[in-house]
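Q: Could you fold this chain for me?
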Amino acid sequence: MIRSSFLSAFSGRGKSIGGKLRLALMPPFVLAALFMAGLFAFLTYTDLEAELETKQKTLADIYATALSDAVWNLDQSGAEAILAALSLDPDVAGAEVKEQFSGVLATVGSALPSDMESALLVRRSIRSDADVGGENIGEVVILFHKERLEVLLQDSVIQISGLLLLLMLVLSVSVTGAIRRFVSDPLETLLRGIQRTEGKHSRDPIKWKTDDEFGIVIDAYNRMIERLSEEEQALIFAKNTAEKANKAKSSFLATMSHELRTPLNGITGMAQLMEDTGLDDRQRNYLHSLRSSGELLLALVNDILDFSKIEAGALEIDHHAFSLHRSAKMVEQLIIPQAKGKGITIKTNIDVDKDEFFWGDGAKISQVLTNLAGNAVKFTDEGEVVISVQVLEKSLDDALIRFEVKDTGIGIPEEQITNLFNAFTQVDTSISRRFGGTGLGLAISSGLVETMGGDRIFVESTVGVGTVFYFELRLPKSEAPKHVCQAVPQNEVTRDLHILIVEDNKINRTVAKGLLEKMGHHVSMANDGQEGVDAVVENEFDMILMDIHMPRLNGLEATKQIRSMDDKEKANIPILALTADVMQDSIEEYSSHGMQGYVAKPVRREALMDALAPYTMSTTSGEYI
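A: Sure. Below is the predicted structure, expressed as structure tokens.
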């Protein structure tokens, strides 16, 4: 802003002294240049016109003499040859030769105008030779044009205009040099110092020593920035201290969340394996409690990780094409088991088509809706929970979507609504004791909505009647994604597979191996991608479950090497990603490297059976994607 103000002032567009003087001097320079250019053009035109007139008379006299014999002898071809030579002159437009009694003998070029008195026409009498009397035997009429005269005039005007412009520039520089030295330079120095201070690039004092008013102003500015620098350093120190503490906290939460995830995956996975062993009812109840507690703890760890990312500003939005209808239905399916346990009805109102795709983070939208719907079920003892997706505005390029979750639960007191979205906050402590939870869900959901471009989550509630949570997002329309890896409906295993598990974590290998063997499959294992590639070379497999992040050789590179094998049967082995990263962009990357689907971690028996179903129902693997 300061820079633009300075440039405006110094160029004369503002109210600076330099600008005013330049504006005052500019009109005389311009008028003088225009006058001189016009005078030069007039004189040049006059000279060129006189030159052309002289040339016209000379040419007419020469060709009147040259045509004498041809006219005397009525030699039409001879006259035409002479006129042809005349037409080569660039200033000649046309010519005509007349014999005194026979009329027109020869013509060349343009037809002569009817106005035979035009200034562009030159007439000369043709006389016979002196030895035959020197009588008038005919006439030659030559038509001239001024194209060359105009071109010469234009070139001359351009040249003199350039010279005048250069002269005006020299005069302008000379006159404004003094203005710059005594007025503009000190102003420019002061304004640059203010600009550096405003942009926080520097707090250096301005070096300018004069005894005039500019010197006094610059000294006062230097004293001011010295005080500002001292205050700024104190603020920066306090800010850095706070940021270090916040980063340390976020880093600790993120690290601990990741470190806790692996053993928790092992707990829930091993619990699944134990469910199929010979347990009595009491042991089965104990195991169910163990598995439920592990899953709740895993959900809490995920919440803490999300919250730490939001608080640190490190949460990334995974933009991709997704089906909003499918996302809403997925939320419904996730909530139905919880609602059935309480006898609550789940309803959905979805105002978008099944084949209508939008560009955004479908997983995070589903996460927010799942949290809101889960809370609605948690705090509703009877009645219903309604999940709505409504199109408020629609154009060819995008749509404004309203997402709403409405329940008939206990309601929220008005004075507590403002604190709902604070971390670790619930309406009162009895809520936590009765319904459980940490109070992180709404804080995370609110952060997700704001990160995706929404305003905030709105709440309308009446105690004893129910609550409505809603938010709005403007989502661009999109075409269907190129790569879609989806689980198919669960089917019964019809044939056993020889499956290779490529996974660097021992607990994850054990869980996956146990689940697969319970399904009747034969399992081999590799500790990393390189071992997996070597195992494929040496053995025959029906399928590979491939982890993505591994030492030595990661899952994507291992898949690429397998797909490039000369043995086409080995190159076409079905490969499913075994990963916790199931964002749409990542799924498309897996597909582009030759994977045919994925199994999400933590590995669950039902999801694993769904992923294997197409291959257990068929005896041929087909080619990879």
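A (continued): Confidence is low (pLDDT under 50) at residues 1-14, 428-436, 483-493, 619-625.
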